[in-house]
């Protein structure tokens, strides 16, 4: 399926049963909600997907089942977060075999590669596959900044086509647009900069709270792109306290708790993660409950 790096692409959570197996039934409930809301793609295996806790067999199952569930409606994108070039190439090959349309790629994990090593890593994986690639640029969390000069080199490879822009520097979108135009598609990766990034020219939004609130997330994107800024802003202002749940170390627990409130998931996480408890649980629940209570009506979306 042709990969278009635009629109809202949820980084979906992985659902588990109480016996710590994949909960594919609830997972499909969420995927269908995303599709019904009009998302442009599904991204598997990111931080929200608890990919670091999944076995290879579970990852294979998730890819194949998601491809089956979407049934060609939208592309399926696989996140690659590997420690070695060899491992990343193998993961890309597996994604291609199982029907993925694109890859979201982090720099090498654990080892803090220098600029040359990082560029060489991305190029090697890109040359090994026909899949379209979005580079995940998140120096805040992963310690490696992919600079504009590095992107200049990377864009010599045709299937490196997009960036998940998570530097938290909103002006970086303008820098990229000025330098690369439409050659590099830009998707914001920070929920609390979603609308701002779209207004600055981002082509899409890799979203987290969309897992619990798909219609509202897609509405903000579509309204902003249509120039209906006042309407987009009204929804976004309601949404911001919820979006802030995406920028903490417990984002998985937070978003899964929000999914419970909207009927799109459970709060079961895989150890070492634990469900929220105590005062933090009360704080997050208060935010979610207020958000659900004041949620925009469908006629406002």
Automatic annotation (TrEMBL):
Pfam families: DHDPS (PF00701). Keywords: Lyase. PANTHER family: DIHYDRODIPICOLINATE SYNTHASE. This is Dihydrodipicolinate synthase family protein. Belongs to the DapA family. InterPro entries: Aldolase_TIM, DapA-like. The keyword Lyase applies. SMART domains: DHDPS. It comes from Arenibacter antarcticus. The keyword Disulfide bond does not apply. It comes from the Bacteria.
